[in-house]
Amino acid sequence: MTANTFTMLPGRGLLALGGNDAVDFLQNLISNDVERVAPDTSIYALLLTAQGKFLHDFFIAQRGDGTLVLDCEGDRLKDLERRLTLYKLRADVLISDLSEIYRVAAAFGDGAMAALGLSTDPGNTVAIGDGVAMTDPRLGPMGARIIMPVNDLPGALTDRGFVPGDMAEYDAMRLSNGVPDSSADIAVDKGFPLESGLGRLNGIDFTKGCYVGQELTARTHYRGTIRKRLYRVDVDGPTPAPGTLVTLGDKKAGDMRSGQDGIAMAMLRMELVAQSEESGTSFTAGDARLTAVAQDWFDEDTLENSENPAAASADPS
Predict the structure, then answer these.
(1) Does residue 316 lie within any of the structural domains?
(2) What is the 3-state secondary structure (H, E, C) of 108-163?
(3) Same structural domain for residues 136 and 237?
(4) Do 200 and 149 share a domain, yes or no?
(5) Least C-beta-crowded within 10 Å: which of 140, 168, 227, 236?
(6) Mean pLDDT, residues 76-100
(7) Residues 149, 263 within the same domain
(8) Could you give the CA distance from residue 130 to residue 95 in angstroms, rounded to a whole number?
(9) Average pLDDT over all residues of the chain
(10) Which conformational region is residue 210 in: left (phi greater than 0), alpha (psi within -120 to 50 degrees), or beta?
(11) Dist. CA 61–CA 57, nearest whole Å
């Protein structure tokens, strides 16, 4: 049994979006359906370039007063705020930084969800004091995320029987699930969301209306045309630094992303992963040998065109 553990996430920042137009404003910009956000439902979403490349990812919850709260990368919060402000124009939207008064924590363990009154359904949300607790909208096994005033954390969690952990424990859980850590694993203004499984992680609604970057993202989804993807890799040897070249024999296979203690993420060419599996040959990166591990939530067989044959045969021009 795994003890119920919480980890403060100091690398996260929080933006509040209020005003009459906040929902419509975000709905026209980001990859997921903002109209689903409610007191009992939170979402995971992306802001992309017009060419469908990754800029930011974040979680969106609704505060008790109806304000939308974005849980985003702290170091890149100002860039996200700047980009949202550029789109705001005359919309009735107030954007403010909550990072000094609210904090984010992760909670996980065998009884964590029950202790918080949550189901294991991604995005399930409950009020907790003056904040919210949500089942990670990406993946149920990632546990819960809690957004609360700084003075209420971590007391609200210790009162519920949670014990403090550290970032290494949280990262070990994240890496074991093969879930990317924002820009640590996804190249900003270069990476495409489907290469990192962000569609499978509930970050994209393929039935909603237009948003920035929607055309290429939808086309790639329905055609199943990705050639590389982000894999969890088991590491035999010293964990390679992010950016380290990964090879299979004399072929360049990709590069390393985040990792620790024998487990990491790497962006790899899918054809070479298949070759590695067939031949039993390991990848190499620096002084380490790597084995790509398939995740149940990211089934490569589902990348076929069966969901929308018409879109798959459409003229890309």
Answers:
(1) no
(2) ECCCHHHHHCCCCCCCEEEEECCEEEEECCCCHHHCEEEEEECCCCCHHHHCCCCE
(3) no
(4) no
(5) 227
(6) 96
(7) no
(8) 19
(9) 92
(10) beta
(11) 14
* 147 and 62 Cβ atoms separated by less than 8 Å: no
Tell me the pLDDT tens digit for each residue of 201-231.
999 999 998 999 999 999 999 887 789 999 9
Nearest to 274 by CA among 256, 250, 301, 255: 301
Look at residue 223 in the predicted model and tell me its pLDDT: 85
Cβ(154)–Cβ(165) below 8 Å: no
Q: In what order do the strands lie in the sheet with 131-135?
A: 125-128, 131-135, 144-149, 102-108, 5-8, 163-164
State residue 12 phi and psi, 5-degree precision: -100, 150
Calculate mean pLDDT across residues 154-173. Answer: 96
Determine, yes or no, domain membership for 264.
Answer: yes
Query: pLDDT over 90 for what percent of the chain?
Result: 88
Does 6 have pLDDT greater than 90? Answer: yes
Distance, CA of 34 to CA of 68 (rounded, Å): 10
* Rounded Cα–Cα distance for residues 298 and 225 (Å): 15
Backbone phi, psi, residue 112, to 5°: -65, -45
Task: Provide the pLDDT for residue 316.
Answer: 32
Q: What is the spatial distance between Cα 97 and Cα 70, in angstroms, rounded to a whole number?
A: 10
Taking only the tens place, the pLDDT of each residue in 25-46 is: 999 999 999 999 999 999 999 9
Q: Which residues constitute the domain of residue 155?
A: 5-165
Decide if pLDDT at 135 tops 60: yes
Look at the chain and report how many structural domains it folds into: 2
**Higher pLDDT pick, 208 / 144:** 144
Q: Are residues 161 and 25 in the same domain?
A: yes
Residue 44 CA to residue 218 CA, distance in Å, equals 17
The answer to whether the peptide bond before residue 164 is cis (omega within 30 degrees of 0) is no
